[in-house]
Specification:
The protein is built from 9 helices and 16 strands. It has 383 residues and is of the alpha/beta class. The longest helix has 21 residues, at 262-282.
């Protein structure tokens, strides 16, 4: 199999680097989606576009009466400047593939190319889901809710994510909770301004903001949550305007709320909103709250996880059985409510800059490991 993967790897790398130079933010993946659709059609797949936005569903259909298997890759980039000095670096200011979604897409291309060579040996249909808007948590939900998606009804779904900090080519998986649920909460407080020399004539939200900055991160402890199952991270705080003559009349605080399960996250969100309302009422302030970037917890099905473990063994991949879920979120978790699904990580090297870092650069050589594992999963289930 290594020779077969080696034969497709140069094209995979070429496509990955081409995509890297054309990053598109969540919900704006139009050019990426068109390239995906054109490439899949050229390989003989049945392609449906506009799935949940700019999503693409590419189908290798063997027999309409046979079961379906799905592989998913995300396509969106991030609002981050690309600092690396490479000829394929992003030329677009403040937009880059700093999470490796270009590579995830290219890995799926390589998998398709291999499986097309063995099409006659397959007895299942295979759907390749190229998903938009993973970074906002909206993409998977939109794809699954799209009227065109249920035509496949997959028995299993699989996906991967590259992971800096893990040894190059190593892989990791665990059954059950794999990624935390998360959601952003924005709290806006409004009083009224006054001259800075007469702060008592205004209604400043400064004390309320201070209370929330202190209390929000302590909510997991307040709720007696087991260590590691909940987290509230302050990501932004603002008080008034940058003017020495004005006592502030408004404030805003933003926090990301995470839970090992959807219930853990919802319990923290409920308490955070209660706290904010109580603080605003105590200080006589108006309050508005908004939520965004909702991710469900990613939970690996035990049967699907065993299929991944078997693929690790078949490909000789150095595997790690993870002992705890990751705190970062991944909207592939939406698939677990609709099919048996499992997600694994692929080591990008201990020295690789972290995800969402301006210096991040996907190591092209690990694409072969991802292709091999996806191919082994498909041959095991469909052969």
């Amino acid at each position: 199999m290594n020779s077969a993967v080696d034969s497709v790897l140069p094209e995979v790398i070429r496509i990955r680097r081409f995509l890297h130079q054309q990053p598109e933010l969540s919900g704006n993946e139009q050019q990426t989606a068109q390239l995906v659709a054109d490439t899949c059609r050229a390989m003989g797949l049945d392609v449906r576009q506009g799935i949940g936005g700019h999503g693409v569903l590419a189908c290798l259909q063997i027999n309409p009466k046979r079961p379906w298997l799905a592989f998913r890759a995300d396509m969106d980039a991030l609002p981050i400047q690309d600092n690396k000095q490479q000829p394929y670096a992003s030329p677009i200011p403040n937009i880059s593939h700093s999470c490796g979604h270009d590579a995830h897409t290219a890995i799926l291309f390589g998998t398709i190319k291999l499986l097309c060579h063995f099409k006659q040996a397959l007895n299942h249909n295979i759907a390749f889901v190229f998903q938009p808007a993973e970074e906002t948590g909206a993409g998977a939900r939109a794809v699954i809710a799209d009227a065109k998606f249920p035509i496949i009804k997959p028995d299993y779904a699989f996906a991967l994510h590259n992971l800096p900090g893990m040894t190059l080519h190593h892989v990791g998986v665990k059954s059950g909770a794999f990624n935390h649920a998360s959601e952003g909460l924005s709290i806006s407080l409004t009083g009224y301004t006054s001259h800075a020399c007469y702060p008592e004539q205004g209604l400043s939200p400064a004390a309320a903001l201070t209370e929330l900055v202190t209390a929000l991160p302590n909510l997991p402890t307040e709720l007696a949550m087991e260590k590691g199952t909940g987290l509230v991270t302050l990501v932004h705080a603002r008080l008034g305007t940058e003017d020495f003559g004005i006592s502030p009349g408004d404030a805003k605080i933003m926090a990301t709320i995470r839970g090992q399960s959807d219930n853990d996250k919802e319990a923290l969100m409920k308490r955070a909103k209660e706290l904010a309302n109580n603080v605003a009422k105590t200080h006589g302030l108006k309050i508005e709250m908004e939520t965004a970037d909702r991710f469900s917890a990613c939970t690996n099905d035990p049967v699907a996880t065993d299929i991944i473990r078997k693929a690790f063994q078949q490909t000789g991949a150095a595997a790690t059985e993870l002992d705890a879920p990751y705190r970062w979120s991944e909207d592939f978790g939406e698939f677990s409510g609709h099919t048996k699904s499992a997600f694994f990580v692929l080591g990008a090297g201990e020295d690789c800059p972290k995800l969402h870092n301006p210096d991040y650069d996907f190591p092209d050589e690990i694409a072969a490991t991802g292709i091999n594992i996806f191919h082994a999963i498909a041959r095991d289930l469909c052969g």
